[in-house]
Amino acid sequence: ERFVPASDIDRIYWDNPYYLAPDGKLAQEAFAVIRTALEMSGKIAIGRIVLATRERILALEPRDKGILAYTLRTDAEVRRPEAIFGEISGARPDPAMVDIAEKIIAQQEGPFDPSRFVDRYEEALKGLIADKRKGRKAVAAEEPEDTNVVDLMAALRASLAAKGGRSQRAAADKEGPANRGAKAPARSRAKPRKAS
Question: What burial class does residue 78 get, using C-beta atoms within 10 Å of its C-beta: 0-12 exposed, 13-18 middle, 19+ buried?
């Protein structure tokens, strides 16, 4: 239906990816022409497809020697950010806290490696099945202690120190005696909300 720059499609609209490849030798040439033209133009093809009796919007982009097809969410499926983010205070955070948070981010910085991230639920389920096959009984895991962060600055410093940053004592010395032990007001946990 349309060819658009990839940058025009906000990531919130991208849904599930599918690999597309030509079906047999006769389709190879037409597929190669379309794939190469998309690659050279730097555009994404937008079309429609019926998947499981439902019409979906599809975005096609060249990937390696094939094409990657993403289903896209419709505008009606995506919630407006103002409906959720409108509740967030516009107050500026404490610069010292932001500085510590930036240091934590810098310590944990690195390239994205999808192999480092596994589905822990699936892994635990496989372990339970393997134990059951061996005749072992399942042992219920203890509930983790609910930690309510009352002093965000102390939590940030502890995280930074645990990751090899400066010690909590050095941070306290820099802070000065007047502010030591000051507590931030209790905060409620942010609730994740689905964007679509």
Answer: middle
| 45 pLDDT more than 60 | yes
The hierarchical CATH code for the domain 2-77 is 2.40.290.10
Cβ–Cβ contacts within 10 Å for residue 3, how many?
13
53 compared with 165, residue with greater pLDDT: 53
For 46, the 3-state DSSP assignment is strand
CA distance 24 to 133: 44
Task: Report domain extents, the chain.
Answer: 2-77, 93-108+149-185
Buried b (16+ CB within 10 A) or exposed e, 165-191: beeeeebeeeeeeeeeeeeeeeeeeee
Q: What is the pLDDT of residue 25?
A: 86
Could you report the per-residue pLDDT of 81-98, keeping only the tens digit for each?
Answer: 888 888 888 889 889 989
The answer to whether 140 touches 151, Cβ cutoff 8 Å, is: no
**3-class DSSP state for residue 74?**
coil
